[in-house]
């Protein structure tokens, strides 16, 4: 990988996103809108419904949005022939994926900062731990979504096929991450599967930050980061120049 080339790719992606206003709006506005809708649903209900669900959703929403946008955008580069032209230049697959990861990582930081800021400042989300830790976990989850999106784009031929990976890779993680049922009370086999899924550790980290004033989440963050790096490496190994 060449740092200069990687940064050039990242700059190119950011310019494209800036020109695509609908995608930019989806990336930056949708997470805030979903969190606001959730707060509105629970506003007049007794109990801590919003505060109980919001931390987990701050982990899930950036992951889902970045997975969809990254997988479709990367596939579009290949189907349009842009990727083949880029790789004909002095540009390696690692530079291409690294540039995309940097660009979407920057977008993920802004996206997560907005969602966390809206939730804590305007929607009265009360967390025991420091707010900046919420942001760190949310950003890492969004980066994980981007990394998995880059990886699965290699196996799709059309944008529709890229979206079909959503129920295959994302929905099972949402069901088994502990959002609906605590992972410790899942049937044994499902608990084993849950322990192998990155979103489980992302939700665990968010839950610890929301409930503990001094949360110990380095292990969870390390696992989520490890999954993201592994997805990028696999993406570089499987990336094709064009769709068959």
UniProtKB/TrEMBL annotation:
Membrane topology, from the record: Multi-pass membrane protein
GO annotation, cellular component aspect: ATP-binding cassette (ABC) transporter complex
Main subcellular location: membrane
Alphabetized Pfam families for the sequence: ABC2_membrane
All residue ranges annotated as the ABC transmembrane type-2 domain in the record: 22-242
Any GO MF annotation of the entry: ABC-type transporter activity
Keywords, comma-separated and alphabetical: Antibiotic resistance, Cell membrane, Membrane, Transmembrane, Transmembrane helix, Transport
Localization of this protein: Cell membrane
Keyword Amino-acid biosynthesis attributed: no
GO BP, one annotated term: response to antibiotic
PROSITE patterns: ABC_TM2
Superkingdom of source: Bacteria
Membrane-spanning parts: 25-42, 48-75, 96-120, 132-155, 162-181, 217-239
Family in the record: Belongs to the ABC-2 integral membrane protein family.
This protein's name: Transport permease protein
Species, as recorded: Nocardioides marmoriginsengisoli
